[in-house]
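Methods: example folding runs. The two proteins below were folded one after another, and each record is reproduced exactly as written to the output file, sequence line first and structure-token line second.
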Amino acid sequence: MPRTADSLPSLRELLTTAVEAVGGAERPGQVTMAEAVHKSIKTGEHLAVQAGTGTGKSLAYLVPAVHHAIESGRTVVVSTATIALQRQLVDRDLPRLAKALKPSIGREPTFAILKGRRNYLCLHRLDTGAPEEPDDGALFDPFAVSALGRHVKRLFEWSSETETGDRDELVPGVTDQAWRQVSVSAKECLGKDKCPFGTDCFAELARAEAGRADIVVTNHALLAIDALQGYQVLPEHDVVIIDEAHELVDRVTSVATAELTAGMVSAAVKRCGRQIAEDIVDRLEEAGEGIREIFGDLPQGRLDELPRPLEGVLRVTRDAAHACITALGPDRSSQDVESTTLRRQAIALLEEIHDTAVRVLEAFDTDDAQRRDVVWLSSDMIGGNPRPPALRVAPLGVAGLLRERLFGECTTVLTSATLTLGGSFDALARQWGLPVEQRPSQKAEGTATDITPPADNDMPRWSGIDVGSPFTHEKSGILYVARHLPPPGRDGLQPAFFDELEGLVNAAGGRTLGLFSSMRAARQAADELRERLDHPILCQGEDSTSLLVSKFAEDEATCLFGTLSLWQGVDVPGPSLQLVVVDRIPFPRPDDPLASARQRAVEARGGNGFLTVAATHAALLLAQGAGRLLRSNDDKGVVAILDSRLATARYGGFLRASLPPFWTTYDQSVVRGALARLNS
């Protein structure tokens, strides 16, 4: 039952209780953030909060969230980008908070974790087998010798032990291909009422638990699915708190990206099987053969115009998929379970093929300035081998979607250690669809609630606040920019770079995290420094990333070199990490289809495409990378940017303003001396 505000302790009292329970001390930034989140929930005004590492931001938003859930009886959704933060919230922060607050609020707050249906084991799929594989019998043979067979056999064994069916609880994990054999998408699912395993369904049990919870922890992908698609996935809620909000746009874009391959069409042909007339299925099979041939002939990369052969095969594929869907007919409740399952499996893939073909064809109906989607052809690498080509289509931006489907539906709090780029929230606010310039509106007299009436322009109202960091960056860290180095080129790392890196690592006595813009550069640097130095050099890809990070943390003399996941995923407090080296400003690749298309679209509307897209992308990554240095109050060290453009280029000021306020120098001898003193 909801409780009135008068019967609940104040937010400040609950925060004090929570902090004491976890053995901490209240920090000014944490209190400021908690009060700002509480005010946002009360007024309905969206909030962006930059909260540096060590602020204690989890409690700063969880306590107001619990207060609102108990007072209103409504669920609050907390969304994260990473599994690691989900697990931290569900396994550590929320259980401790619930136990601590129970005496104050009269009951223990409840919480649950909810993911997309594909993340849960499907008991019906386990019983009937996967439709993608032609040799189902061999695949599910417990004595199968293939790696896929071994993984599926292990999943069968795990299915009788797990209580949740949650893929993330399976350690060690299995390949995506193996997991697809035992899971279904929302479109493939028969539904609780029709499925013979409906009452025991792991996904339905998770949804039911979430519907009863005060706090539901989910991920940005499921949040996007709930917001962007036509069916409700999350329980009813009026508040969303988005942690790791700097990742929101990329995760929503990923959900809104579609793909078409010849393999998908072949799989759809198999799924149709004998359900429809052979001549109709043959048309789809011929379309798939056309896709395979034309995709193989076209160059990879962004498509600014639709080649006539590709347009032709897409129209044929669209029409063939539609004919198959029509032939399968409407869903008939009188069908037996097996027939219903086969139809659902076929329809799900056919609709995906049809809708993607339509979307690609429509993407070229407008000029560059009005275009909403970008289309490209690519072939990813798996295990060193190229996959068959895939045609992909993604939105140029998700601002409109977020503005309408997220900010237009519920009060939203966005938080991260990195939200202000160039010293302002504006860059990310534009990507989220929040107005950068807005007129304050006055609360009308006699308004019955605290909710502020909408502004005249009907745009969402929001505010931004930077609550700072408990770290004294200017006293604990140095930003060193190697202004004397030549600008990085396209032919790999230069000899001067290795000389600079060698001197820095020697002065630091190892203790170095090297962040590189490409895997090629990381390996090149690791190979070179192994020849020059005695310090152990670990390189991403030589073992699992988690194991490499553990080894790096355990041995102070060790260095770890790697690329993108290390820029945002390393948390190593203490003396094992005293030097963060960045090889070059992490602009997106010039041939990146999505980034280049977004940049061109901004320029077509008269904007600065480089600053809006490329520089913003680089600033966000630089800030995340620099944030690896100080992870506790006792940490000290250096962030070294070995790209002279940070000091010399016109955009350098914007990038430097995005970094923590370290003391800055361009003097090589000063930095080496500081590192040597730390190492003494």
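Second run, written to the same file directly after the first:
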Amino acid sequence: MSTAAAAVEMHASRWGDPARAGALPESARGLVEAVFGIDERPAATDVTVPAPALAAEVLDALRAAVGADHVLLDDATRRLRTRGKSTPDLLRQRAGDLSDAPDVVVRPADHDQVAAVLAVAVEHRVAVVPFGGGTSVTGGLAARREGYAGVVSLDLVRMKRLLAVDHTSMTATLEPGLRGPEAEALLAAEGLVLGHYPQSFEHATIGGFAATRSSGQSSAGYGRFDALVVGLRVATPRGELRLGSAPASAAGPDLRQLLLGSEGAFGVITEVTVRVRRLPAEKVYEGWAWPSFAEGAAAMRTLAQAGLLPTVLRLSDEHETAINLARPDAIGAEGASGCLMVVGHEGEPDPVAARRAAVASVLTGLGGTPLGEEPGRAWAHGRFDAPYLRDAMLDVGVLVETLETATFWSRVPQLYDAVRSALVEALGEPVLVLCHISHVYETGCSLYFTVAASGGDDALGRWQRAKAAASDAIAATGATITHHHAVGTDHKPWLPAEVGELGVSVLRAVKAELDPTGVLNPGVLV
């Protein structure tokens, strides 16, 4: 039907739009200097990308599949498709390590061209890494090279169409290369909204949302991305899968669930059909104060179990509230006391007013203090800015990274304490460990931790040891190793603890059936 305009390319060695990269804000700089000190860490410059390793016959076959203009070997393009945007990814880039650069970037235009590229990869045993927005933070874009003739970055940037809209059923079919804002703009022209806004929203893609089981900041109202998906089209080395022929089915296990969260290891998602809603006429965000994290979490649980969730529901703990992390442009400035909750409502005016009043009645009755709309507006204004702040802190020698998990309500205090303790012990003082809840369910919630510590001379090693300690703590409490960041390579060692060795064997069997030569994102997930 319609195609999105080209989006801004992300920075090669930082997060996001290069024009928005900047120095640490003065308010944050004062906090950093007081807690950690300033240790300027310039990145390596003039680092060369390894020469392409693919044979001429493979390149010719790829050109025949997608057209010569869409098979790219230049250093700049390959650098932009090297790894994702986790702190370890950036630390390796800053140290001059580009060893994971693909040999070639290939840009198919449609499902058939994706299938043709996979056929070439199978014939010549070439690893293929599907690439959407490049926002992976768990090592999901660093394929294993051993045993392969080379690595292709399968860049889906040309697949940016809104293919179909069903206004009666309220569904839309999108191509995987559409970034979040592009998809929303195309849907808005139809009077519709998807409502999926993860922190990576400005750069992550529809295909990436599906392949990682993404969860957005408005998940309380719109749902996780996997809950929005009603249909998939997938290219695999064995052929095509079309899944989702009805709103619900009893025709055996739901095979869509095998592809959602599969991170390109089972197939390449080429079309996603999603549930959509009418554009909201009204959006209102407000702040609430709670004496403690436990009391705020109990209020969230009450709303979820009463079926009274707003569109946005987020709670910062005492530490995150104190330094204002819910407002990245004011970090280090005086924050609210206790714990800050952000509550947002979207929809038609009358239902919004009714739900807002009902939610406020519950929160007030449980001991919450309304703070008005200013804290909510401030959060909404800066909710995609935190990764830029992370990069600015890396510039002055402060290691900053995030990790997330989820558990049942009864286990939240144990999980919270275990992860905090593991991080503090692994990193030593001074360290900041901050946490918020941003995704809630009747039975439990997610915990999202932000960690800051001095990087020192081995920032990468320090974080790897801390992340392993936190992951061990998560597994020991029976929580999930990832709520919405996916497995990648970073979380793979802890997957057996969650699904069991038999469960991992089932996933390996699926991969063997769909990708018998193992060319799809080798080393990722399983």
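Comment on the second run: Residues 495-514 form the longest helix (20 residues).
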